[in-house]
């Protein structure tokens, strides 16, 4: 069983990721949370937690961690501090402890933030974090979903390096995609976009 650090475990998508990992026969979730009161919900399910604030030191978070999913977000409030610098700090920590794979939950539009009509600052922060990860020499996958919805997941997506269209996707299916990418047989050192579609997630993820 591999230990998977989930940054942003208390977020809407993060919680879904942790639940999927909890029932996995391959992975153990380690929930990274910012506040002590957020730990209890995980600990009572016997899920390990680590306390860390992405605006501060995170060097301790990747000890005994095999792979990382970065699903944290500032909600648009502190994009430079959390979405960019927080991600960069966690990438550095992962390098120092020789993490085997770093999976970044990014966003469609992060490849060309200057073309965005809105969310420009957020997309620029995601872009900078993605570039830093690609240049880090860590094995990585960067997953860029369309607009997130709270619809029930269908387990099917449309995936391409560049979809050249906008679209939406459920958080359920994003979480499933991120967990699928954890597998060693899944794509490494690739960046791709996803929206809802007709291809089963297990088939859509490039091997």
From TrEMBL:
Highest taxon above the source species: Bacteria
SUPFAM superfamilies: NAD(P)-binding Rossmann-fold domains
Any Pfam family the entry gives: NAD_binding_10
Residue ranges of every copy of the NAD(P)-binding domain listed in the record: 8-184
InterPro entries given in the database record: NAD(P)-bd_dom, NAD(P)-bd_dom_sf
Protein name: NAD-dependent dehydratase
């Amino acid at each position: 069983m591999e230990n998977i650090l989930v940054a942003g475990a208390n977020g809407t998508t993060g919680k879904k990721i942790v639940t999927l990992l909890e029932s996995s026969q391959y992975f153990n979730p380690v929930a990274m949370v910012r506040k002590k009161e957020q730990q209890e919900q995980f600990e009572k399910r016997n899920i390990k937690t680590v306390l860390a604030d992405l605006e501060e030191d995170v060097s301790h978070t990747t000890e005994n961690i095999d792979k990382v999913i970065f699903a944290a977000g500032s909600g648009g409030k502190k994009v430079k501090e959390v979405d960019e610098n927080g991600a960069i700090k966690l990438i550095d920590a992962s390098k120092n402890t020789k993490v085997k794979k770093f999976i970044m939950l990014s966003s469609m539009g992060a490849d060309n933030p200057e073309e965005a009509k809105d969310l420009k600052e957020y997309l620029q922060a995601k872009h900078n974090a993605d570039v830093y990860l690609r240049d880090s020499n860590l094995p990585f996958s960067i997953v860029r979903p369309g607009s997130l919805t709270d619809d029930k997941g269908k387990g099917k997506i449309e995936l391409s390096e560049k979809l050249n269209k906008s679209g939406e996707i459920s958080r359920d299916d994003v979480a499933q995609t991120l967990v699928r990418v954890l597998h060693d047989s899944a794509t490494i050192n690739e960046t791709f976009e996803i929206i809802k579609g007709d291809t089963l997630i297990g088939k859509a993820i490039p091997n």
